Amino acid sequence: MEFIDLKAQYRALKSDIDARIHKVLDHGQYIMGPEVAELEQKLAAYTGSKHCITCSSGTEALLMSLMALGIGPGDEVITTPFTFAATAEMIVLAGATPVFVDIERDTCLIDVSRIEAKITPRTKAIMPVSLYGQVCDMDAINALAARHGNISVIEDAAQSFGASYSGDTGVKRKSCNLSTIGCTSFFPSKPLGCYGDGGAIFTNDDALAKAMREIRVHGQERRYYHTRVGVGGRMDTIQCAVVLAKLERFDWEIERRLALGEAYRKLITEAGLPVQLITVRPDRDCVWAQFTVIVDNREALQKHLQAQGVPTAVHYPISLNRQPAYRNDASAGETVNSHWAGERVMSLPLSPDIDLATQQRVVSAIMRMTNK
Ligand SMILES: *Cc1c(COP(=O)(O)O)cnc(C)c1O
Questions:
Q1: Where are the domains of the chain?
Q2: CB under 6 Å to ligand 1: residues?
Q3: Chain segment 283-322, per-residue pLDDT in tens
Q4: Are residues 155 and 123 in contact, defined by beta-carbon separation less than 8 angstroms?
Q5: Angstrom distance (rounded) from CA 140 to CA 183
Q6: CA nearest 87: which of 258, 338, 298?
Q7: In testing the pocket of ligand 1, which one of 54, 59, 184, 236 has its CB within 8 Å of the most ligand atoms?
Q8: How far is CA 223 from CA 5, 85, 213, 215, in A?
Q9: Contact at 8 Å (CB) between 141 and 153?
Q10: pLDDT for position 371
């Protein structure tokens, strides 16, 4: 059993992916070829955003967003410590200071009710993370940012491309198109992955889109004319071709992810396992970049599952404010739910091509241990 079965996906899409890659090899525009614009147009349409800017990774998407917003030394960005390192890493790399706010125990998402207390005159952005594939309460975060004036909201949507949220309006909207800027990743194991590194940024703001397009190519407004400091942040044409091929069945994959998540929940509940499920709020869905659960005896359970041939993973074991690179004892003392979750979360195998029998094997393997 694979933790994420990318080979099954490739087998299903092989002829299309191969054809699209070969087309790029033949036309020879390996950087900024026609597939880049085609993908940007399709992804913008998918999310409903005015602009999509592809880039070299989800990490670079976060950095380019912060740079376009002019966030740097002296500025503060509010985020969660319970995320992949890149979230806080890019805030620090931009020269700003990450301010960590604790998560909710049931969703593992940033606790919006605790954000306002952390807003200061230096706060320039809030960076909520759509962890495991579920977006945060973006309407509430946007309202908070608007109330305090000049605060931008950057969604770290690396795990949530394809997820929906209706919030206050009752109208379904897509992750990445819920705030000032949305950033996603096409790392192979993400819900929409390529075969290397890749990412994309979404916005409805023309000036920010222009800035990010320039930042992506070393701050060039036109060739060899540099109006600002940028990065080398382009996504390869071949990787764009891979994502284009994968988009063909992406709606089906999202449906599968939602159904597989429901199936796991049902199996786990019916088996009466001592496993806490992540809560999905009624106004949104979760595309399960990882199907993560909360358990008390994680280490023993992981060992037992490994012996039964069931791979698991931990997303993520140590809160960022307890990591040597981002250590902040005052904030670490406050974010108790993040530490609690870090000691207990465990992700189970899930990818669109697995079947119910595989899920039953996973749940039975957990049952065998917990019944002893
Ligand atoms: C994967 C991930 C990133 C970084 O994306 P890359 O494409 O790997 O650089 C950032 N934030 C979160 C929450 C992620 O899961």
A1: 6-101+109-247, 250-370
A2: 57-59, 83-84, 86-87, 129, 156, 158-159, 185, 187, 197, 199
A3: 999 999 999 999 999 999 999 999 999 999 999 999 999 9
A4: no
A5: 19
A6: 338
A7: 59
A8: 42, 34, 13, 13
A9: yes
A10: 66
State the alpha helices, DSSP H only, in 138-205. 138-147
Burial of 314 (0-12, 13-18, 19+ CB in 10 A): middle
CA of 210 to the centre of ligand 1 (A): 23
Provide the residue type at 240 as one letter: C
Are 244 and 16 spatial neighbours (Cβ–Cβ below 8 Å)? no
User: How do beta strands 123-127 and 76-79 pair?
Assistant: parallel
pLDDT at 253 over 60: yes
- Ligand 1 atom with the shortest distance to the CA of 60: 9
Q: From ligand 1's centre to the CA of 196, what distance in Å?
A: 13
From its phi and psi, is residue 105 left (phi > 0), alpha (psi between -120 and 50) or beta? alpha
Ligand 1 closest atom vs CA 86: 10
Spatial neighbors of 225 by CB under 8 A, at least 6 apart, are none
The CATH classification number of 250-370 equals 3.90.1150.10
Of 240, 280, 217, 222, nearest to 54 (Cα)? 240
Q: What is the spatial distance between Cα 199 and Cα 130, in angstroms, rounded to a whole number?
A: 15
Closest ligand 1 atom to the C-alpha of 83? 13
How far is it between the farthest Cα atoms of the chain?
Answer: 69
Domain 6-101+109-247 sits in CATH at: 3.40.640.10
Within 8 A by CB and 6+ apart from 114, the residues are 101, 102
Least confident of 118-122, 167-171, 246-250, 276-280: 167-171
